[in-house]
Amino acid sequence: MREYLEVLLTRVGYRVSLAGNEKTAIETLGGSGVDVVISDMKLGQGSGLNVLKAARALAAPPEVVLITAFGTPAAAVEAMRAGAYDYICKPFDNEELKLLVQKALEKRGLREENRQLRRSLSGGRGGLWVGESQAMKAVWGLVEKVAPSRTTVLITGESGTGKELVARALHLRSTRAGAPFLPVNCAALNEGVLESELFGHVKGAFTGAQTDRSGILVSAGEGTVFLDEIGEVPLATQVKLLRVLQERRVKPVGSSTEVPFQARVVAATNKRLEAEVKAGRFREDLLYRLNVITVDLPPLRERQGDISLLARHFLAKMREELGRPNLEFSAEAVQVLERYVFPGNVRQLQNIVERAATLADSDTLGPDTLPSALRGEREPEPQVVGEVTLPVGFSLERHLDDAERRYLVAALQRSEGVKTRAAELLGLSFRSFRYRLAKHGLSEREDGGEPAGG
C-alpha cells in the first residue's frame, strides 16, 4: 500500500517519503518539512493516532489523513478530536484520495498564511493598514473593538477596497487567531456545491459523494469562516443559512442529523443589501442576522491622501520581489497617481504599481510607466452617426431590457444552448446569466428560442 500510494502521488507531482512503522514515521516528521501525512490507523504494534499526536506537537504541524478499514463512527470521532484533517475508509477511490490531499494542502497553506499575517500584526499594523486618512483610522478602530468578540460582522464596500483583508484582521486580532481562517467565494459556486461546501454532506447524498465530508463551518473549528460575496447566495440557500446562523447547527446535505459548529462568521458584499431586499433578491431577516456590526470600507477616491503612501508601500514589496532595491517613483508619477480616481480602488493601484515596477527600464518610475488612462490620454472615441432621438412615450428601462434580451438570445444561439459558454460570451458569471434568463422568461428553453406560449 505504501509503494502504491508513492507511485500514485508522485505521478501528480508530490514528493513522497515512506515510513514502515510508527517509530520511523515520527523520526521522519521530526527531521523534514512534511506538509501532509497519510497514515493507516493500524501500524502493526503501533497506531496512526500516535503519529497524529506527534505531528500535531510540531511547531508547524502538517495536516494528517488517516486510513482505516473499520470506518466506525467511534474511530472517526477519535481521529477528528485528536486533530486529524480527515479520514478515509478502505477501499478508497484514487481520485477521492488525491482530492483529499489537495484540500489538506490548501488548508495548511491558509494556516501558514495566517501565521505570517499574525507575525506581521504582532508589532502593530504591520503594513496591513497603510494610510493616515480619518476614514481608515475609523475602520481600524472599529476592527480593534470588534475583533475579540463572537459577534457576526458584515463588511461592505466596493470591489477592491480590501474586504477580505479586514476579515483576516478581525480573525488575527481575536482569540481565534490560532484556528483556521476559511474563505468561501459564494459567487463562484452553484447552489448545490455551495451548500455542500458550507454544510458538508454524507456518503451517497449525490453522485460523487463517496464518503462523509464535514462542511467548512464545522471544519473551521473555533476559527473564522469568511463568506465573500454574500449577496450572490441563492434565496433557497439563504433560508438554510439563516437557520444555521440562528441555531449554530448545520445539517449536512443528505443527513437527518444536525451538527453543532463553533466558528465565527464574517460576511462581505459589494452590493447594497438593503436595495437587494427591496428587489426581493435577499432576505431581510438574514440581513439583520448578518449585520449585527457593519464595517464599511471607503473607496480609494475618498482617501486621496493615502494614495502615495499605498503606492510606495506596494513598490517596497516589488523592490524585494524583483531584487531591485533602488526602484522609486518620480515626483511627477506620484502626482499622476494622486489625481486619478481609481474605480478599482486599492487592488487597481496595487496592480498598476506591480506593472510599472515589472516593466520599468530604469530605477526611476516616471509617468510614462503608468497606464495612459492615468495620464489623461484616452482612446479615440467612436464617431457618433446621427443624433439620438427620444420619441414620445420612450422608456429607457424597456429599451435596455429589450436589448439585454436580444443579446441573451444571440449568446444562447451562438453557444448552441450551452449556458456556461453563453455566459462567457457575454462576460457574465453563470449565476448572473441564469438570473437574467429567468428575468426574461428564457430559462424554459436551452436553445435561446421563445419560451412555450411566448
Automatic annotation (TrEMBL):
GO terms for molecular function: ATP binding; sequence-specific DNA binding. PROSITE patterns: RESPONSE_REGULATORY, SIGMA54_INTERACT_1, SIGMA54_INTERACT_3, SIGMA54_INTERACT_4. Residues 129-358 form the Sigma-54 factor interaction domain. InterPro entries: AAA+_ATPase, AAA_lid_NorR, CheY-like_superfamily, Homeodomain-like_sf, HTH_Fis, P-loop_NTPase, Sig_transdc_resp-reg_receiver, Sigma_54_int. GO terms for biological process: phosphorelay signal transduction system; regulation of DNA-templated transcription. SUPFAM superfamilies: CheY-like (SSF52172), Homeodomain-like (SSF46689), P-loop containing nucleoside triphosphate hydrolases (SSF52540). This is Regulatory protein. It comes from Stigmatella aurantiaca (strain DW4/3-1).
